[in-house]
Amino acid sequence: MYRKVIVLLTSAVVGCVLTTGVAQVSAAAVCVNTTPIDSYAVNAAMELSSTYSDPAQEVFSVGQSFLGTGVVVDSASISLSGDSGIVGNAYVEIRSHTGTFGVDGLPDAVLATSDLVDETTMTTAATLIKFNFSGANRITLVSGTSYFIVVNVMNQSIADVNAYAYYQGSYPTEVHSGNIAYIDPNTSEWWVANSAGTLIFEVLGDSGTPCVPSCIGVELESSAYRSGPTQGLFSVGQSFIGTRVVADSAKFSLSGSTGIAGNAYVEIRSHTGTLGVDGLPDIVLATSDLVNESVLTTGATSVKFVFSGTNRITLVRGTNYYLVVNIVTQGAANKFGYVYYRGTYPSLSYLGNTAYFDPCTSQWTVGKVAGALVFEMIGAPETGNNNQQSKEEKKDQKKIDKEEKKIEKEEKKDQKKIDKEEKKEDKKIGKEEKKDDKSEKKEDKKGR
Description:
Blueprint: E1 3-7, E2 32-40, E3 48-52, E4 59-67, E5 72-82, E6 89-98, E7 106-113, E8 117-118, E9 127-132, E10 146-154, E11 163-169, E12 180-184, E13 189-192, E14 197-199, E15 201-210, E16 219-220, E17 224-226, E18 233-241, E19 245-256, E20 263-272, E21 280-287, E22 291-292, E23 301-306, E24 314-315, E25 320-328, E26 337-342, E27 354-358, E28 363-366, E29 372-373, E30 375-380, H1 383-447
Antiparallel strand pairs: 1-30, 2-15, 3-11, 4-10, 4-12, 5-9, 5-11, 5-15, 6-7, 6-8, 6-10, 11-14, 12-13, 16-17, 17-26, 18-25, 18-27, 19-23, 19-24, 19-26, 19-30, 20-21, 20-22, 20-25, 26-29, 27-28
């Protein structure tokens, strides 16, 4: 009989955030040498102002016109802030331009849309927020062509919660040739800004020259941790609480790039820090048998690791531990390992936390996501029961030994009695034989 120590959701469970295959094999994280396309930085000599969202405005949109330089757009940054409690996602668009540049220019058709940025990362102070363009949205901006960079902040019409986009006015000088435009929430139409000025912004392009980063570590995808592109050993762990059982096996939801080669294994480690807050793996206590990574597919699969021999350790009840899965990726190009997790939506009551080994710092780091790995720890019956069983067996054996000794004693006693009777009988026979011999001699003598 086996006992489950910890069981979390597997990919077969309906209704959890984990969606198998979402973090399928993808391209390696790209390192890009960027080049400036256009920007306007804060000048201390100029007055910093801001335009803010209307309380009834679901999406706050404001833009700045700029000129293309013939390179692929990589990212855009806008100086933003938000009142406490702002929620939603912000994003940036590159739009075509209509009107006269720097005079009455307005945004037109959407040409590219950035990745989303969680608005909870915005503070109440002006901060340059970066928006990345990915995939088909990394378009080439024609040299000398007018465009608009538009930031959209979804504040969901929350009362007294506004978003702010920062600009600098024309006093004492204005050095950028473009102009600001915004959507009027009353008419839903684009308008040229009332005051001359320029948004605090920066648009960066891909220089076309690839760079080699010193280190790209563990990446966080929509439902999985992914190994870095040059990471030889990919290690991710989950903290849990022991229940006084013998470690028998463990399961993790894993996947890997096609052609990934090597062996994966699991470790039980001691725990340091606060469980569920900043807990990290520490000393290795037990190591599972190896599992050939050829069993990994490109979709999330539950992979079992078995503990054998001296690695079948007893987990102390109430003690914090870490279960760490290690995938050997050998640092091969585009050969990634994936360890799946479940996020906090709609709820997650599990007390532990995740951690991963950062190859860039060579240190364990608290997980990048609030949630828990999809895993299962299975234990054999409690060691105490085995001891009790052993005591009962010894007691029974002792009883058997006692009975056997008693029987042996009785047998010896009976044998002694038989021997005594036989000796007595032999003695009697001897006397009879002597008496007969004496009678025969007497008869012989009488006959002579």
